[in-house]
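agent> fetching stored inputs for the NAI docking request
agent> found them:
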Amino acid sequence: MRHNDQTADVLVIGAGVMGSGIAQVAAQAGHRVSLYDSRAGAAADAHERLAATLAGLVERGKLTGDEVTATVERITPIAELTAAGDAGIAIEAIVEDREAKNRLFVQLERILPADALLASNTSSLSIDAIARGMTQPERLVGMHFFNPVPLMRLVEVVSGLQTDSDSAARVFALAGHWGKTAVHARSTPGFIVNRIARPFYAEALNLLQERAAEAAEIDACLRGAGFRMGPCELMDLIGHDVNFAVTRSVFEANFFDKRYQPSLVQQALVEAGHLGRKSGRGFYDYPAAGAGDTSGFRPPDAPPSRDNIGVRGQGPVAEHMAAILQQHNCRFERINDSKWIGLQVDSARLRLTDGRTAAELGRDIAVFDLPLVHEPGSALAWSHAERASANWVEQAPRWLALFGFAPQQVEDTPGLVVARTLAMLINEAADAVQQGVCSEVDANRAMCLGVNYPAGPFEWLASWGPAAVIRLVDALDAAYRGERYRVSPWLRQRAWSDTGGHA
Ligand code: NAI
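agent> prediction call returned; pasting tokens
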């Protein structure tokens, strides 16, 4: 009879950052854990460090002394893999090297019982490639934790072509038993999170490369959209060496698809040793002052003008504008049937971006970014046409401020900051779903739990609508040419099924 996964002994191989965290989580869930590392003394050192960290949590009232003692006692550092020959579950967190992992799993197959679960915490290698040489490759499952393991709730359960569904289901259930939220992913480059998240960094790096905005402006805008951190400060935190390596690996693994092309801006930072927080310098110098801080924002007391005002289009942005104008007793015309959304003042226009630049749209034009959050003081990017009148250039940001946004002027670039980032995140998620990497629900869950996004890509899609996303990505494609901004066929299908198709 098969052992019970919830009470089985666990073997963790690799006592580094991830392995120690996995050992802790397994021990806290009640398993006896053997911790092995090929470097002599590394497992014992990790065990000692863990005991000290957990003792610190007792002082801060997060755990009781008894819980810590029990957890620490359940973990045994071992000097030989064979000492864990009875383990029912083995989780590998060794160096990210395919051949080292191949050798290890071949060995584990020999040492452990025939029904033991075999899992790899790889972040970038294919599960089938890791299973090479195994007698029963169907036993191998990816169990991809996020750093720091005890705090991050997400686990991607990754299946290769050969993985059997029963093994994946067992790993999925085990993650749940350990208090994690598991999602199923097919073994493809970057799995779910590291793939869908690429545009979050790439769009920021593109904006920097074309000198459309400064790092602090980009960060302020994405924080203004509800992200906990902007992409530049986040890359500084992750480390540019690590982030660049992940981007390169996804790029190479996709046969150099331009969509995932790494950035020269980031390469330069890596080459200069400006790796971010850990080296004291990245986009920012550390310790850094709050980048792009808008906390001192106060909206103006009155509208910049009161004549010939129209609110155009429908949806939350137009509703918000109309509500604010009413609060100020400002007379305006409501033009629902409009090709664009925003504010008209005489012949001047303040338009929600549809991906085209202000210059492309006419003379007295300012475009503003997609507002996701309507809290006063949320940073919002805007730009104006080069030939816009001085009067409109001065008035447009005052209107945005009246609507409660802290205006961040950027160069007149297609899709501004938030709109292009979100559109590309949605587009990437759509491709992932089409290719069977994950479900829509799991993509949403993975992005919210794995990288703390304020909402999942398909939640944004539901509120923004596929037609608007497609229009934006197509506009980016028209502006840049190339392969980066190609619309996911899945999105076009979705738009057609929403509208009943072309016919
Ligand atoms: P790390 O460098 O902190 O730890 C790796 C440990 O494995 C070291 O202690 C090393 O001595 C040991 N080791 C190396 N080869 C070994 C072998 N053949 N047998 C036994 N032990 C061996 O690395 P980290 O960051 O803990 O990563 C481990 C794995 O987890 C990698 O596959 C990585 O891609 C993956 N991962 C890392 C994440 C991170 O944020 N650091 C996130 C998710 C996955």
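agent> quick read of the result: DSSP finds 20 helices and 15 strands in the chain.
agent> awaiting further instructions
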